[in-house]
Design a protein that fits this description.
This protein has about 260 residues and is of the alpha+beta class. It has 4 helices and 17 strands. Bound molecules: 2-amino-4-trifluoromethylsulfanyl-butyric acid and cobalt (II) ion (CO).
C-alpha cells in the first residue's frame, strides 16, 4: 500500500456536533480577546481572560497540560509576538503599539477539540506588517477552498504555498496543520508546502473525504522560512528576526463546500 493510500477515519454526525461546539467557543474566545489587544496589556492577562471565558462556557483549555515530547504546556493560549512564529508563552510582557501578535487557542468539550489562531495588529501597524497579515489570511482562505471531497492534502498545501511565495514571503516547514477530533492532533499532517520527494512518507498525500476535520494553519515569515526554538523550550521564532504571522481554522470537509467551524470575523 502506498503511503498516499492511508485512510483517515471520518467523524460521525454526533462527533461533528461536538467538534462544532468546541470550535464555537474557540471562535468566541478570539472575538472576545480582540477587544483586549491594546498597548499595555500583558500576555498573561490575556491568558487569564481566555481561560475564564472557556471554563464559563463549559469547556477546557486544550493546550494547558498538553504534553509534547517530555514537556507540559502550562497555559491556555500560545501568544507569539513579532518574530515569534508559534508557541509563545504568556507572561508579564506588555504588548506595544505597532506589534503583530498571534493568539492561538484550543478548547476541549465533551471529548472533542477545536483549534484556531488569529494574528492581530496592536494599535497602528506598518503597512508592511499589514500586507503580511493579509497574505497569510488569504493563503488560509485559498487552502480551505481546496479542502473538499476528492482532493488531497497536497492540494491544500499547494494553494497555501503558492499564495505565500507569490507575494515574496515564506512558509515555515517545521510545523504543520493536523487532523482534529477526539485529540488535538490527529492524522493527517497538513503541511503548508508541497513536500519534497524525501518527505513524502512523513506527509502522505491522503485523499480528503467528507466528515474529516482539519486544522489548517499557515505560518508565514516575512523573511526566510528558517526557525529556531527559544531556551524556554517552546517559543518558535524566525531565525532572521523578521515578523511572522499565523492564522488557523478548524474546518470540516463536506462535499465541495468546506465548513469553517471557527469563523468569527
Ligand atoms: N495550535 C497549536 C498546534 O496545533 C497548538 C499548540 S499546542 C501546545 O500545534 F499546547 F503544545 F502549545
Ligand atoms: Co493547530
Amino acid at each position: 500500500m502506498s503511503p498516499n493510500d492511508v485512510r483517515i477515519p471520518t467523524h460521525s454526525a454526533d462527533a461533528v456536533r461536538k467538534i462544532e461546539a468546541s470550535c464555537r467557543i474557540v471562535a468566541d474566545v478570539l472575538q472576545h480577546l480582540e477587544g483586549y489587544i491594546k498597548p499595555g496589556v500583558t500576555t498573561i492577562e490575556l491568558d487569564a481572560i481566555a481561560e475564564d471565558f472557556i471554563r464559563t462556557r463549559g469547556g477546557e483549555p486544550a493546550f494547558k497540560g498538553y504534553q509534547v515530547d517530555r514537556k507540559i504546556y502550562p497555559y491556555t493560549l500560545c501568544i507569539s509576538v513579532e518574530e515569534e512564529v508559534v508557541h509563545g508563552m504568556p507572561g508579564q510582557r506588555e504588548l506595544s503599539a505597532g506589534q503583530i501578535v498571534s493568539v492561538d487557542v484550543g478548547v476541549c468539550m465533551d471529548g472533542y477539540y477545536g483549534d484556531s489562531a488569529y494574528t492581530f495588529g496592536v494599535g497602528e501597524i506598518l503597512v508592511e506588517k499589514q500586507r503580511l497579515l493579509d497574505a497569510t489570511k488569504e493563503s488560509l482562505r485559498l487552502g480551505i477552498e481546496q479542502a473538499k471531497d476528492g482532493n488531497r492534502v497536497y492540494d491544500i498545501a499547494r494553494a497555501v504555498q503558492s499564495c505565500v511565495e507569490n507575494q515574496g514571503y515564506s512558509v515555515v516547514r517545521e510545523l504543520v496543520g493536523h487532523g482534529i477530533g477526539q485529540h488535538l492532533h490527529e492524522e493527517p499532517p497538513v503541511p503548508n508546502f508541497v513536500p519534497g520527494l524525501l518527505h513524502r512518507t512523513r506527509f502522505p498525500n491522503v485523499p480528503l473525504k467528507s466528515g474529516m476535520a482539519l486544522a489548517i494553519e499557515p505560518m508565514v515569515n516575512m523573511g526566510m522560512f528558517h526557525v529556531h526554538t527559544a531556551s524556554d523550550g517552546w517559543t518558535v521564532f524566525a531565525a532572521d528576526g523578521k515578523p511572522s504571522a499565523h492564522f488557523e481554522h478548524t474546518i470540516l470537509i463536506d462535499g465541495a463546500t468546506p465548513r469553517i467551524l471557527t469563523e468569527w470575523n
